[in-house]
Write a structure and sequence with these properties.
The protein is α+β, with helices and mostly antiparallel strands. It is 47% helix and 12% strand. The relative contact order is 0.18.
């Protein structure tokens, strides 16, 4: 087992070189949404439909099946088998808010009001990992959903989200501009070193924070529902899953591995080990129960705040466009009007 490049563009560059040479550095790959879109459309992956019978699919809830249809199949074939289902959560330092007598914000307006009381002396009310390389794209999709739209549509909701982010940085000064150079690991460190009070982060942070036993306390890792923007409360779920490159020399063994890891018998055992394997599959929730972050996944689902992830058929390339123009706007190199105009032209070219 080896660790692949974490950033999607770096991983795609590695795989492109390997596939063009008729080889692969991996026989089974853990693939995120961004790279799956590109790899499936490039015909680099092996179909996995023959591994799973009708009984297997009865283990999946409808919302997860809908996600699989959009994000794991292409041209009617299954090329990626999800091993998790991850919503982005809104984490906050309850200990800090309680000490100051403040409530966790529920809306964009409350975030600004409360955030001004939290920011200062090297502490930021809210931050994120917004470096280029898919981190910023994730962030833009999140805020645009709360504005009521899809970032790839470049509509008024996208403009509203961009303006709000800019205001958080420059007008209200509660969100660090330096976040544009930080990845999720750096964000976690800022949060755990008392430099950030609130953040949007994936569920793997549940294990990261608890792994630092000297730092961890429950009130340092509280979770609230996502903020409500003009479009209401919203977050979205993504998933990682197993895929097999066509250039593997061990395709049948790779497929056997995937079948074993995702079976109704073994998927629950993995979910009990780590949130990396958590999903709303019936077998998984029955095994995990109300423990850990599973209760928050159920809470978010019951509240109806988990929306479909914004989709684009040229997902990685379109995301790069959004990142380029957003980065330029959020560092005051171009105006919002110029940013949207350039994005529309470049997405049109795609």
């Amino acid at each position: 087992m080896v660790t692949r490049p974490g950033a999607a563009p770096d991983f795609m560059s590695q795989m492109t070189s390997a596939v063009m040479a008729g080889t692969t550095p991996y026989d089974v790959i853990a693939v995120e949404d961004e790279t799956f879109i590109s790899m499936s459309r490039a015909d680099w992956l092996v179909p996995l439909d023959d591994l799973f019978d009708d009984e297997f699919w009865t283990d999946f809830p409808q919302d997860m099946l809908e996600m699989i249809e959009i994000w794991h199949r292409y041209d009617g074939k299954l090329y990626r088998m999800p091993h998790n289902f991850e919503a982005q959560y809104f984490w906050y330092r309850k200990d800090i808010l309680d000490e100051l007598g403040l409530e966790v914000p529920e809306t964009w307006e409350e975030l600004v009001e409360i955030g001004k009381q939290l920011t200062g002396d090297g502490v930021w009310a809210i931050s994120d990992g917004m470096a280029k390389g898919a981190y910023l794209m994730v962030n833009l999709g999140y805020w645009t959903l709360q504005a009521g739209g899809n970032a790839f549509d470049l509509g008024p909701e996208f403009e509203t989200a961009m303006q709000f982010l800019h205001d958080l940085m420059y007008e209200h000064q509660i969100f660090p501009v330096a976040a544009l150079n930080r990845d999720f690991d750096a964000l976690n460190q800022d949060y755990m070193n008392d430099r950030v009070v609130m953040m949007r982060q994936w569920p793997y942070f549940y294990d990261v924070g608890r792994g630092d036993t000297e730092w961890f306390e429950e009130d340092k890792m509280a979770i609230a529902l996502p903020l409500a923007g003009p479009g209401g409360r919203a977050t979205y779920a993504a998933a990682w899953g197993w895929s097999v490159p066509k250039t593997s020399t061990k395709i049948e063994a790779a497929k056997t591995f995937i079948e074993f890891m995702t079976s109704i018998e073994n998927a629950p055992k993995l979910a009990q080990m780590s949130v990396w394997w958590l999903s709303p599959r019936k077998s998984v929730l029955e095994a995990v129960g109300d423990e850990g972050i599973a209760k928050y996944m159920a809470w978010y689902s019951e509240e109806g705040v988990i929306k479909p992830r914004p989709f684009h058929p040229r997902f990685l390339e379109a995301g790069t466009v959004l990142e380029d123009i957003a980065s330029a706007y959020l560092t005051n190199q171009i105006t919002l009007e110029e940013a949207v105009s350039r994005a529309k032209q470049r997405l049109g070219d795609l």
